[in-house]
Amino acid sequence: MNDYYGELGVAQDASPEEIKRAYRKLARKLHPDVNPSEEASEQFKRVAQAYDVVGDAEKRRAYDMGNDPYAMAGGGAGYGQGFSFSDIMDAFFGGGAAAAGPRSRMQRGQDALIGVEIDLSTAVFGGAEEITFDTAVTCSVCHGDGARPGTGKHTCEICHGSGQVQEMQRSFLGQVMTTRPCHACRGYGEVIDDPCFNCSGEGRIRDRRTITVKVPAGVDSGTRIQLTGEGEVGPGGGPSGDLYVEVRVRKHATFQRRGDDLHCSVELPMTAAALGTSLPLETFDGPRDVEIPQGTQPGDVITLRGLGVTHLRTQSRGDLMVHANVRVPTRLDPQQEDLLRQLAKERGEERPEPRFGRVEKGLFGKLRDAFQAK
């Protein structure tokens, strides 16, 4: 049985990464383009054959159990036991033929998802946010080619550019021909002579990017903005995936958002609620006067039309709702108490008639109960 570990110069318990590094080192030294001698050419074939066996997890297990896929064919296609049921099905029903041909090094990059936190004012009117994130970008040295500048690629000597190799295997059904990706070129059909030192031949590296995201008016926490082609660059200089930016709106000190309406509360003295007044309010559209009508009751709502959040994908806006919270004094001096008693006497309210009834819930309490009842 061939000593494949010895051909590669690694121990039998070597990791897949150690085996791959050993093969690459020997291939660069023995490749016919680098070393044209017949001895080096023969040794290169043995090294490629060794990597084809121990570089594949399934074949390696079979080899470690004493099954050499090349032993019975004198170094050609062999009859190893390292087969799978899918290999047999592909051989009989043509599954392997459908995947014929080398695969491209150029692949689409993955999509990415990052979060951005915005102020409520940005959600109202829209705006631009600058975000910084780590992602895969095109290698600046080889520009996605994967090869060190000044070098190139050559057709794989093992699969002759097809990206696949055929093997004869023995099974309980007899001898079957299977097709597998070539381990020498990993199915690409070509080998990089000298991989780029910056990206190790992948054509991309990890780096930090900063971009400006246009945030449309009306977004809310959980809204995702899709930026086409701003995701990770694909291997081999492949096209970039998409970037999804998930929005989270910061809490505001004064306003609370409910749908596209904004809500706030104002605390009024009992006298101001009874007599009416005008109060200044700093809104997202600048200062506005809130007119408190005479006889305002606790829980009354004063609506400022069109000062809420812009509806997503439209130009119309919600409203700004000001909830009145009437403050009743808890401490009175003798003069104030006397004035109130005089007022109560004038209004005939010294001994008011009791008017008990059900506790009526506010609008939002009724809506909450309606949803809970479903």
TrEMBL record:
SUPFAM superfamilies per the UniProt record, alphabetical:
Chaperone J-domain, DnaJ/Hsp40 cysteine-rich domain, HSP40/DnaJ peptide-binding domain
Q: Which family does it belong to?
A: Belongs to the DnaJ family.
* Name by which UniProt lists this protein: Chaperone protein DnaJ
Q: Where is the signal peptide?
A: none
Keywords annotated in UniProt: Chaperone, Cytoplasm, DNA replication, Metal-binding, Repeat, Stress response, Zinc, Zinc-finger
Q: Which residues form the J domain?
A: 3-67
Organismal lineage: Bacteria, Bacillati, Actinomycetota, Actinomycetes, Micrococcales
List positions binding Zn(2+) 1: 139, 142, 196, 199
